[in-house]
Predict the structure.
Amino acid sequence: MKEFEEPQAKRVLLLVDTNLRLMGAQRFAAFELALSFAGTVARDLARRGCEVECAGLQPPDRALRVMVSRERRNLDALLEMLAGFRRDDRHTLSDLADHLDRRNLHRAYVLVLGLGSVRARAPLGWLQTGDNVLKIIDVRSEEFRRVFHRHVPGTPHDAGDEDLLLGLGDEDGDDETPPQPAPVPPQTEMATSA
């Protein structure tokens, strides 16, 4: 994700789409990949000195949100929240507008991990404030595949993938290990073939 701009305020708002409509047979794999990516992004950005707030909608109509500080406080709470996320096909990312204070969008880097909401063309213009950076990524897109892959233990890393996140330089420079995906338990709901 080296082409992304560095957030000026070092504050990132990460929105995870939990709507899986129109996603096809691989919807649960895409959802797990989005959750894994969200955990990886939050951990790496906090390590690099950013404050990260992650949010997503959950049934029946509530938003779950966790803020991870620059000191990585609440990182475990965020990973637990992501591990507990379930699909919510009745709402799109547009419904998050009712749960987020518009002030949270200002001077932030807003990163949206889109699934069914993007496919359904849910209006997301409300996320743009004029003084923030907005990046919407369709998790099923080629762009997302270029940005993030899960590392399988025992396989070599691609050297070009070591600095995955938002084009931020490694400020402490002492961590040689590239970020690994956050552990996400398998979904309990089984995909049915149509």
